[in-house]
Specification:
This protein is of the alpha/beta class. It has helices spanning 12-17, 23-32, 46-51, 63-78, 94-104, 119-130, 150-159, 163-167, 175-191, 198-210, 218-225, 229-241, 270-276, 282-287, 291-309, 350-363, 388-394; strands at residues 35-39, 56-59, 83-86, 112-116, 134-138, 214-215, 245-248, 264-267, 314-320, 326-333, 336-342, 367-372, 378-379, 383-387. It has 2 domains: 2-138, 3-Layer(aba) Sandwich (Rossmann fold), CATH 3.40.50.300; 144-394, no CATH class. The chain contains 17 helices and 14 strands. The strands form 3 sheets. The chain has a 6-stranded mixed β-sheet with strand order 9-10-11-12-14-13. Strands 2-3-4-1-5 form a 5-stranded parallel β-sheet, sandwiched between helices. The relative contact order is 0.10.
């Protein structure tokens, strides 16, 4: 199984076809900082993107590359080539040396590109050694604007965005996702510090699949697994740190209503979610009772990933009042509040927009968008009923 997930490069033809939206931002940061850390889940395409920039590449999970870097280090830091350090968290000893090299020539930018698959381990070393010396970026699996055709966009929801998980070759889904999760539970997560046995982790993942899009309740989850809520929350820290899950925090306001104060939990890649829930094809997906939650999480992740790839600064939330007014996604961005309601329908109604307006008025949102699978878009840059394609092209 491990051989399926070794570092692989896409062939040059495919690589040229698939432009990553974050690449311009990455190049800009390399001109402004001595180092850039590009974070993201395993197999999302970090290595392919980094190697497209040229320079000297080292996989720090490999002992031979560590030795090669050690022996060549002085020559590399005095040279003019970009030095790419893949899985940088696997060799913490390199961080003090990078700090020394950067501080010796603080006026030189674009020297080091660090790639990492698990943010907690990498961020500890970054905060201790490289704070103020590098930019932090996140690469996701492929997203909406990177899908070159309508057909590719149609399958992105079912298969997810991992290059080798069906996005490029449909026949690989869902076996690729199942192998990916098995490898994470048996090797990667224990190596990154998760203390649970692989069987326990896999059981947790299946239960989290059923809880996708729901208000997070660690006590209930813990009761189902004979674990206390603190242990469950600690496990969740590893899973969110590995870019598998997103905890969307609740929006807090001074309105005269009781508000739900717990986060919502979403799987970041719907291909992994669908494989966990044994959903083999689009027809099966549409027939599932949880299909609306799947679509909701997919749209939220696409919006947040698109904004991040473009270098936009934002803070995401969700909102629900005690009397049932809810907003699926609230963004604080550009000094405004943006409200998004997501419906799995091709024919949203006036009542849907009116309900969004009432909820948006409660929090003072100046922009509000009702997102569905409608083929038409009605409205403007401040208030519209539209599909995901129109929103990303015209608004985001």
């Amino acid at each position: 199984m491990a051989g399926r997930f070794a570092k692989q490069e896409l062939n040059p033809i495919i690589q040229n076809m698939l432009k990553r939206a974050i690449k311009p931002l990455l190049l800009q940061c390399l001109t402004e900082y001595p180092a850039v850390a590009l974070l993201g889940s395993r197999q999302c395409g970090k290595t392919t993107l980094a190697r497209s920039l040229g320079g000297e590449y080292f996989d720090l999970e490999q002992e031979t590359d560590r030795l090669r870097l050690d022996l060549q280090f002085n020559g590399l830091i005095s040279g003019r080539h970009l030095v790419v350090l893949d899985e940088a968290q696997a060799w913490p000893e390199i961080f003090p040396r990078l700090r020394g090299a950067i501080d010796h020539q603080r006026d030189r930018n674009g020297r080091f590109l660090l790639l990492g698959s698990v943010s907690p381990a990498l961020m500890v070393n970054v905060s201790e050694s490289l704070a103020g010396r590098l930019a932090l970026l996140e690469l996701t699996p492929f997203i909406w604007s990177e899908a070159a055709s309508t057909q590719a966009k149609d399958k992105l929801w079912l298969y997810g965005g991992y290059p080798n998980g069906g996005f490029l070759q449909a026949a690989r889904y869902p076996q690729w996702q199942k192998d990916y999760l098995t490898l994470l539970t048996q090797r990667d997560l224990p190596n990154w510090g998760l203390p649970a046995a692989p069987a326990t982790t896999m059981r947790l993942l299946r239960m989290l699949g059923a809880a996708h899009g729901q208000v997070w309740n660690p006590s209930r989850m813990g009761q189902s697994m004979a674990l206390d809520y603190k242990t469950v929350n600690s496990y969740m820290g590893y899973l969110t740190g590995a870019f598998m899950l997103r905890m969307l925090e609740p929006f807090q306001s001074n309105i005269r209503k009781r508000l739900v104060k717990s986060p919502k939990m979403y799987w970041r890649d719907t291909g992994l979610l669908h494989a966990l829930l044994n959903t083999p094809d689009a027809a099966s997906l549409i027939a599932q009772p949880w299909v609306g939650a799947s679509w909701e999480g997919f749209v939220i992740e696409q919006l947040l990933a698109e904004l991040s790839a473009r270098g936009r600064h934002f803070q995401p939330y969700w909102f629900r009042s005690s009397d049932g007014y809810e907003i699926d996604l609230v963004l604080e961005m550009d000094g405004e509040k943006w409200a998004f309601e997501i419906k799995l329908t091709t024919a949203p109604g006036i009542a849907d927009m009116q309900r969004l307006d009432k909820a948006a008025d409660l929090i003072g949102a100046s922009r509000r968008f009702l997102i569905s699978q409608s083929s038409d878009a009605v409205g403007d840059e401040h208030r519209a009923a539209c599909n995901l394609d129109w929103l990303i092209e015209h608004i985001i």
